[in-house]
Amino acid sequence: MKQFNTVVLDITVAILDFLYRGRDYQRFWVLEEIARAPYFAFLSVLHFRESMGLRGPEHIDLMIQHFEQSVNETEHLEYMESRGGSAYFIDRFVAKHLVLIYYWVNVVYYWVSPRNAYHLSYEVEIHAATTYAKYLADNGPDEKILEILNDELQHSRELELAMEKIK
Ligand SMILES: [Fe+2]
Ligand SMILES: [Fe+2]
Question: How far does residue 52's CA lie from ligand 1's centre (Å)?
């Protein structure tokens, strides 16, 4: 399943890279819009599990972690908006449709196989960090982008820990 995650992600990234070449902030905005969806999908499933009496010992830790991650991703999104990332209708149209699909994919995936769902988001976070690192290498220092890059690495570490927790 992990290999499946990697292949799907690589194809999606290749398409987005092609569509968004030379439009960095629009690409970042779309990526941030998509990357935050899993966290509220995880929260939705955890809430539902709680309602069904399926709360495990790691439940509260995971709820706190995913809430903080979703807020942090919203901050990233707001920053990309302040740099014009969502200025065009076409980008908003693409992102909002992709996110709708990706949210429900993650709801089902996390319900059926939480570890694999975490692994997919882990790969997405690593990809985001790599994308920002490439931007910094090409465009020189940018404190805010570096801060966001470090947030994505932090999310990837938290997801690794979450995978361990639900073993
Ligand atoms: Fe982000
Ligand atoms: Fe992230």
Answer: 31
Q: What is the pLDDT of residues 104-142, one digit of tens each?
A: 999 999 999 999 999 999 999 999 999 999 999 999 999
CA angle 134, 136, 142 (to 5 degrees): 155
Whether residue 1 has pLDDT greater than 80? no
Q: Among 3.20.20.140, 1.20.1260.140, 3.50.50.60, 3.90.1150.10, what is the CATH number of 2-165? A: 1.20.1260.140
Token pair listed for 59: 């439940």
Domain ranges across the chain = 2-165
- What is the whole-number distance in angstroms between the Cα of residue 72 and the centre of ligand 1? 7
Looking at the CA of 69, which ligand is closest? 2
Q: What are the structure tokens assigned to 96, written together? A: 């909002």
What ligand is nearest to the CA atom of residue 156? 2
Ion ligand 1: residues, Cβ under 5 Å: 32, 73, 76
Provide the 8-state DSSP code for 148. Answer: H
Amino acid occupying residue 59: H
The per-residue pLDDT for 6 is 84
